[in-house]
Amino acid sequence: MKTISKLASAFFLFTILLVNAAPPIPGGGGGGGDGTGAPSSPIDMYVYVLSAIAITFIVFFTKKYKNQKA
Prior knowledge:
The structure is a single chain. The chain is mostly helical. The chain is built from 2 helices and no strands. The protein has helices spanning 2-20, 47-69.
């Protein structure tokens, strides 16, 4: 139960860090920026999916390592 609690705490901390990592929107009534609106790189569209996959891999390999060690 302690492991689940620690994992849940780490997940919520990671989520809060991701939400707060967004750059601030400039004031002045406009949307800001003068670009075309295209993402700077194609990976930008998949950041949340890739982070969820990374967390899944971390949990999987941690459990696998603990089973081999025991």
